[in-house]
């Protein structure tokens, strides 16, 4: 095991170097993975939900009257209403023979790009195994020439770069998929680019905004990442301190003056893009919905994510996405 002082002196220059790395690199591996509170039922879809609304409304009016008709009627109404009240969204599972058999994701639990890929795998119920990479030694990906995560191995083929991974996987599992229109396709592409070029850059300055948020973030990273015992303690404090300073540099680099305002503005921009639709994809999430959801998932239950939901209109869409994506299809077994 490396000595704490060695680790402290290695992580700080590495993270600062990342800030000069010209892209969203190491900085983003410090982003957190918050707890997932996903619905497990996947039985209806948004049209059905709309068709059910008048019924549910009249039903709930009716249930008030049922009280006067007797306890049995009231109880029955409560049970039925409760079973419909958790609106969930159907998935579009790919044809069985097109689902890859052996999928392994090399990731950092807190990395937004990795979470983007996971949102795709989870939504389409593609079973996968996870290898948590140690961000200091990266020994788990020594075999690869590509030195970032995510790396996705799909039936022996190495895929890299989150957006490329999703494009290739999408093509593999839906070779015949037709988009509803060129307009929809352009819109989806435009917002996926917005995620990669804008949204991800707003995240780090927010989760490392001050010392307590930086510590909150690193507490989660070290609790969920692949670190040895001494590494955990060193990385938590050294990493939080380093990223606090790095995030200030990132703010400058991406012309962000007020990080929270930038986060709220991004959330509002996304809700405006939805333009009243349940998802950007309409009745069901498209790749842009999955990308936005994926990169926000690690911060959702941190202070910044909670603030975002409290101060913007994004919460309802986010809850719909949690429900639509459902539980992770991650295989709990070891690779
Ligand atoms: N464009 C890439 C970016 C991937 C990326 O920057 N990943 C970070 C982790 S969030 C990374 O591996 N950085 C290099 C490092 O940790 O040394 C993608 O979308 O997958």
What does this structure look like?
By secondary structure, the protein is mostly helical. It has 2 domains: 4-39 and 95-325, Glutathione S-transferase Yfyf (Class Pi), Chain A, domain 2 (Up-down Bundle); 46-85, no CATH class. 57% of the residues lie in helices and 5% in strands. The chain contains 12 helices and 4 strands; from the N terminus they run H-H-H-E-H-E-E-E-H-H-H-H-H-H-H-H. It has helices at residues 4-19, 46-69, 71-85, 112-123, 162-173, 182-207, 211-224, 229-253, 259-274, 287-296, 303-311, 315-325; strands at residues 103-107, 129-132, 151-154, 157-160. The protein has a 4-stranded mixed beta sheet with strand order 2-1-3-4, with helices on one face. Helix 1 packs parallel to helix 8 (229-253) and helix 6 packs parallel to helix 10. The longest helix is centred in the middle third of the chain and has 26 residues, at 182-207. The chain is globular, with a radius of gyration of 22 Å. The protein starts with a helix and ends in a 10-residue tail after the last helix. The model is unreliable at 1-45 and 48-85 (pLDDT under 50). The chain binds glutathione.
